[in-house]
Predict the structure.
Amino acid sequence: MLTPRRIEIFKAIVDEYIKTAEPVGSKTLQQKYHLSYSSATIRNDMQELEEMGYLEKTHTSSGRVPSTAGYKFYCENLLNNSSLDKKMEVAIRDAFDVSNMNVEEAVHQSCQILSEMTNMTTGAIGPDSSNQKLEHIKLFPIDDRNAVYVFITNTGHTETKNFHFDEDVSLNDIENCTEVLNEHLKNIPINELPQKMQELKPDLAAVVSRHDLLFTAFVQAFVRFASENVYFSGRDRMLYQPEFEDINKLKKLMSLLDDSTVWKNISSDSKSIAVKTSGGSELTWLNDVAVVRSTFHVNEKESGQLMVVGPSRMNYDKVVAMIEYAAKMIEKMYQEKGGGNQNE
């Protein structure tokens, strides 16, 4: 039974373990949290909490650590819902206070700032490209073997791709190819672009000498555009978390970060445990990993997500407050730029 005393002891254990990453014993609780109970009473309650599934006993210490079920209970019932620290609020807000920054750049920069503030890996899932159509392609030639292309969608989302060719391609070919694509691909859904390119192959061959190189480059770029909308920052920060000193755990985490489908479908994963906060964030635990996600809305139909990925032992109050504030700033930026229209 979860009595008020056991809840007090349990919260103290979670708070202490978040700070130290060390198993927590009864003496530590008495000394640091000034609990007015005897060591025997605290030990008995810790045993009960373990039998209830909220705590686990490690093999290397007589202390206890929270279990995944314990973290879930903690986040559902004991989060302080504290406001964001002013210094952090200013730092996040300043990331968006750059007039020439487009929305994608702001999302990436917010991920970098969140990663620095939390010392964890952060990420973003962009709006689903299946709901977007190609509006325009902009060309920025660099030299005979390099060019930068910017794909702009009907929602204002932009995707920048660097093209490097193994052989020289004339500026005339690049310009003619871009003109053909803009003429025939406008309003085509992003996920249909690779197939549409196959139909355009004869048109390209008629006006572009090196159509083979350009055709391959664009098909590959469109395939990536349709599938790659997951971004991560601070992957190396997991190396500094004691939970991932185990090389096998670290390898498993890194393979998860490389699999975009995991993050897009994490809510439906049968192995995950999820909790929603009062502010709308979702906390998910998958094996030894905790994920805090907050949704930002681009428009009525499209949305994306910010994520903080780390060990279950994270400061949830702090992380939730930061990620929810950053998501609101992204939404504000989309609205100010007219639904995501970029500065050109």
In short: The chain is about 45% helix and 20% strand. The domain at 86-128+230-336 is CATH 3.30.450.40 (Beta-Lactamase).
